Amino acid sequence: MTRRDLAGVEWVRLSFIDAFGTSNSVQIPASRYDEAADRGIPFDGSALEGPARYLESDMLLRPVPSTLVDIGGGVARVVCTAHTPDGARWSADPRYALESLLDDVDDVAAQMTVAAELEFYLLGEHDLPVDAAGYFDETETSGSAAVRDAADRLAGCGIPVDACHHEAGPGQYEIDLGPLAPMQLADGLVLAKQIVRDRVRRDGMRATFMPRPFGDEPGSGMHLQQRMAGRLVDDAGQLDLEGAGYVAGQLTHGRGLSALAAPTVNSYKRLHAGPEAPSAVVWAHSSRAALLRVSSYRGRDASIEYRGGDPSANPYLLLVGLLAAGLDGLERGLELPMPAEESARGYDPSTGALRLEPLPRNLDDALDALLADDVLVDAFDDQLLARLVDGRRAEAEAYRSLVTDWERARYLDEA
Question: What is the pLDDT of residues 81-92, one digit of tens each?
Fold first, then answer.
């Protein structure tokens, strides 16, 4: 869609994402779109700092024309980049972080595609799951109809959808986005979450992308399948030397990546919480508990699946981290350990047969690991990293002071 295709569109939503992955927007009359595209639209740039913001700052939003789509109801949406008042790119814009890395590794960027499995819960009255269906359940529900409609809308916006289905938890669904270039995949994930929310709200439902909204039900993940045309895997779907280094790099930086992939306090109630949630820095071909999985049965179409992410992750920052980590391993020729084809919980590290490095158990540990990782730190602008870490530290501190129902039940009458 181009500016010439705005016939019938009355408003344009200028969409941007803050450091914490929250989608924001400014809506302008369609008659002002040319002005926005040519010169930018002023806005309060402190919104880019998310919940950690304190001071207003004058900034400009400038549309990325290739992302302009008609989302219905007389409204179009376009992804925007943030600029300083003099028109320069703002270095702490998450989208700019990914754009900068892709420019630096343009030979890799041209070959790389990423697909995504996005999981979420649909809630109804009293914020309870809308149905009691199970994994791949064929039962037709209001939730399944709404998810199909959301998938159709995404496809109409140029985001390929390979499938959608019911997940393991009651009211839990998954939409699988087809392979896209890294930037288009990040843009598509942000749009997918917004379209799902908007669509199900029409039917009185609420979509939550919280990593683990229910303590007794499965958490929601966001798995990313990475491919590089003609590289990383051979015709049999086995890792070649470059692929082994790439996977080894993401394992080497696995603990630091957790701060980007699982960025909230709640994220760590999904990790370590079941046979399909990663808990250790291992890779495998078949084990769904592995942090990284190589689907060799698909031959040349095999992907390197990163399973440590959840829907609360900022997709731009996570892709920066994954690329930086993988390319570090590829360039240094890091040695890949043996695959862990069983659940990590099935191994006894004391035997020495397989040394397991656990993923962080909480957000503070993950942030410490991120800051201790020079490769990941160097992949980000200092302003952006400081805003991200300070904001997440504040969340962790607020959570530590919270008194829960479990604590009251456990300790009120303790002598």
Answer: 999 888 899 988
